[in-house]
Amino acid sequence: MWNTDVNLLAVLAATVANMVLGSIWYSPAVFGKQWAELVGRKLEDIDSSARGKALGGMFVAALITAYVVGLFIANVGGPGALDGVLVALVAYVGLIATANLAGILFEGRPFKLYLLNTAYGLIGFAVTGFILGIWR
Q: How far apart are CA 10 and CA 28, in angstroms?
């Protein structure tokens, strides 16, 4: 039987953690300028209303991601941080990183962009798995 017992408070905490991580990762002080260059944009040219819509969309996406990772952990992982991280990383590498690579290869985008985004996703999933693994 499929276990749907996921701690919704942990899902919310993981979502917030991912939003904070993303705001740091893609900030001008860390990788924001490099990301903008790789996608052919300038950070100062990104409209603030478009940024707000993007952040709202990312919050919803992070919320869904955290819930699904919680489902994976509830069904294939054991209790604890390490199991949560391992389940989340296997899910990310096996499902997300591979799908994103196909997009990069066919779109002709720079491989550095793939590495930058994938590293962020990998860390984000690890954080999500950690939070959901310890807070079951």
A: 29
